[in-house]
Structure of Exocyst complex component:
Amino acid sequence: MASAETAAEHERILREIESTDTNCIGPTLRSVYDGQEHGLFMDKLEGRIRNHDREIEKMCNHHFQGFVDSITELLKVRGEAQKLKCQVTETNQKLQNDGKELLTSMDELRQCRLQQRNIATTIDKLTHCLPVLEMYSKLQEQMRAKRYYPALRTLEQLEESCLPQAGSYRFCGIMSENIPRLRTHIRDVSMSDLKDFLESIRKHSDKIGETAMKQAQVQIARDNAVTSQQRSMSGRRIRKEVERTGSNPFSEKDSGILDVEDEEKDEIPGAQDLVDFSPVYRCLHIYTVLGARDTFENYYRKQRRKQARLVLQPHSNMHETLEGYRRYFNQIVGFFVVEDHILHTTQGLVNRAYVEELWELALSKTIAALRTHSSYCTDPDLILDLKNLIVLFADTLQGYGFPVNQLFDMLLEMRDQYGEVLLKKWNQSFRQILDQDNYSPIPVASPEEYQRIAGQFPFQDPELDKMPFPKKLPFSEFVPKVYSQLKEFIYACLKYSEDLHLSSTEIDDMIRKSTNLLLTRTLSHCLQYAIKKKNVGLAELVQIIINTTHLEQSCHYLEEFISNITNVPPDTINATKLYGTSTFKDARHAAEEEIYINLNQKIDQFLQLADYDWTAAQGGGQASDYLSDLIAFLCSTFTVFTHLPGNAIEHATLPGKVAQTACMSACKHLSTSLLQLLLEADVRQVSMGALQQFNVDVKECERFARAGPVPGFQGDTLLLAFIDLRQLLDLFTQWDWSTYLADYGRPTCKYLRVNPHTALALLEKISRSMKDTSRKNNMFAQFRKNERDKQKLIDTVVKQLRNLIATNQA
C-alpha cells in the first residue's frame, strides 16, 4: 500500500517537473529529498529520461531527410542571396548618391519649418506681450501726466487682463511686483492732491462766498426791479407819464432787463469757475477703484468738519466793522457752496443728512456769535448794514436749499437791540436840539421861509396866514426839528423791517411800538431834562408848554405818516395807537409844575430879603421894599402867560388856566411863607409895632390879589389864598379873643381859619416882648399902670388857648 502511494507521488512529481518551468522546481525537488525514497525516485527519473531520449531519436530519424533537403536548398539560396546583396548594395549606392541632394533639401526644409514654427510661436507670444508693454507704456505716460484715475484703470486692466495672457515672463513678474507700489503711489499722490484741494478751498472760501453773495444780490436786485417795473407799468399814471415824456421812466439799471451781451459780460463766476474740483473727483474715483471709498469719505468729512469749526470761529474784533462780519459770512457761504456743489456732483461722498448736520452746527454757532458780537454794537447804521448783510447771507444760502428761518428769527431779536441803539442816538439828537433852542417864537420874513417850515412841520393857522410878513410862528425851532427827527426815526425803523418777510401789519405794529418807546421814554425824558435843568426861566417854560401843545396836535399827522409808508389803515383792528398825546401832556404838566416851583423859588428868594424889626414900637405906613419888588415881579411875570395858546386841546392849556393856577399857587405859597416867617423859632419876640408892619405888607398882598393880575378869577377867589393870615392878623390887631374863644369850632366862627397852635405861638412871642422891660419903645410903655392887667389878660388867654388845644387833642 505504501509502495503504491510512493509510486503515485513520484509520478506526480515527474509530471510536475515536466510541466513546470525549471526556475520553479526547487520546492518540488525539496519534497523528494525530504522523503526516504529518493533513490527510488532517481531510478524512476532515469527511466523517464531514457524514454524521452528514445522518443527524440525516433523523431529525428523521421525528419532527417527533410533536414538534408532544407540544407541543400539553403545553400542554393545563399548564392542567390549573395547576388541579391550585391545588387542591393549597388542599388543602395546609387540611391545614396541620388539622395544626397534630397537630404540636403530636406535638411533645409526642416530648418525652414523649424524657423517658421519658432516665428509663429514668437509672433503668438509677442501678440500677448505687446499689449502688456503698450499698456505699461500708457500707464507710464499717464503717471507722468498725473492722470491718476485713468492710470489706475489702466493698471487694473493690465493686472486683470493683459498680464495673465502674456505668460510667465520676467518682465511680467517685475510688472506684477510694481503694481502694488504703483497703486500706493497713486493713492498717496491723490491724497496729497486732495489735501491741497482742501487747503485751497479753505483759503478761497472767502472769495467763493463773496461771489455767491454777489450773485444772490444781483438776482434779488433783478427780481425786485422786474417786480417794481411790472407793478409800476400796470398803473395809469405811469402810462400817462410815458406818453407825456415819450421815454421809459425806468432806467436800464432799474428795469432788470439786460441784453444778452451785457448779461454775459457781467456774468459772475460760480464756485465751479473759481475752484478746480477735479482733485476731489479724481481722489474719489481712485479710492473707489481701490476699494477704500469709505476711508476716503470718512477722511473728507472729518477734514471738512474741522474746517467748518475754523470757519465758524469769529474774530474777536469782528463787531468793530462791517467788513469783519462780511468776511465771516463770506467764509460760511463759501464753505456751504462747496459742500452743495460736492453734494450734487458726486454720488455719496456727502449726503443730505451730513450737509444738514453741518448746517445745523453752523446755524447755531453763527447765531450765537452774532448775538454776542452784535450786542457790542452801538452804531445804528452799522446794525442796519449788518441786518442787510444777514438778510443777503440768509437769502444766498436759502437759494442753495438751506433753511434760514432761525436767522430771520434772530433778526427779529436784533430789532429790539436796534431800537435801543436808535433810542440812544435819538436821545442825543433830542438833547442837542433842546440845548440849542432859543425858546422863542420863530420869525418868518418871507413866504418861502414859511413854506420851508410848513414842509417840516404840519402847522395850520388861518389867522396867522392872513398876517403880513414878517411875522412870528408861535412855536420855537425845536418843534419842526423834533417832528423831523420823529419822522427820521420812523424811517430808520422801516429800513430795518425791510426784507424780513414781514407783513405790512407786522411792520406797522413794529414801527408804532418803537415810536411809542421813543415818545414815552426818550423824548419824554429829554423834555423832562429840559424842564428840570438849572437856569430855566419862566419864559422858556412857557415856550415849552406852547411847543408841546403844537407837537401834541401833530400826533395824528404822525399816525397818517406811518399808515402811508406801511399801507396799513390807521383804523385797523388791533392797531397800536401812538402815545404822543399823553407824552406831550405829561411834558406840559411837568412844565406847568416847574413854573409853579420856579415862581415859589423866586418868592422864597424875595422873602430872604425880608428884614423885619420884630421889636419895633411902631409900624410903618408903607409896605416893605422886598414885598413891593416881589409884587412888581409877579405882575410882570403873569403878563407872560398871555402868550399861551388859546385854542389848545384841554386841561392846563385852556386860556388863562396856567396863569390862574400859577397865580393861585404863588399867592398860596406867599401866604404860607409869610406865616412861617412870622412863626419862625428864631423870632423869640414880636412887638405889636412889628405886627402892624407885617399887617401892612399883607394888605399889600391882598391889594395885588384884588387887582386881578390874571383874568378869569371869579370875585375874590384869589383873596382866599391870604385868608389864614388875614384872620390871624385881625385877631391880634383887634384883640378879639373873647369872640375867638367863644365861637371856636363853629362853622360861622369869624376866625375859623386861625389855628389855636398858631395863635398860641404868636401870643407867646408878644408876651415875651411885653415882658422885656429893657425896651423903651414898647407900645405898652405909656400904659404902665395897665401893664400888669395886660399881662394878666395875655396869661389868661394863653391858658385858655392851651386848655382849648388840650381839649381838642383829647
About this structure: Residues 38-144 form the longest helix (107 residues).
